[in-house]
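User: Um, any thoughts?
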Amino acid sequence: MSLRKLSNPIRKLNVSVSDSESFAVRGLTPADVVGIYYRHAGQASDLFESIVNKHQFEGGIDTDFVMPMMADLLHEAPEIMVEIITAAMGIDARDQTLVPLFDGSDLTATVWAIETELVSQLSFAVQIDALMKIGELTFTSEMPPKKFGALIIGALSKMANKTPLG
């Protein structure tokens, strides 16, 4: 069956900002992970490897597993945490279309720039809730965190060891 025939091919979860407002997140895609890696090359690979080596990736996602990782991410690279949430909202960093900063404004910025700024201003509790939901949607029983971590570290080290042709 084709994905376009599915009623809901991309599973999303809502993150509440207030009693009446929320935004949806999805799991991370390979393009999301690679994009974040390239935008934060050294920092992202060092941080990811540190987290994978420091935290035991056994079993599924739970608070005991995620909270120490989130603390490391917040401490070491809050801008990466913001980009993870923005990417999981479906905002594409490669889209360079300029939009008004607010209705009627002559000032413009990319949607990515505007959304990452807004995400960075969300409360800590909302950001952690978003990251927990992104983790739930990214990791599965077939792709648990340990396997995901091993694949990402392997791919990142292969990318880092590639030399340009010529």
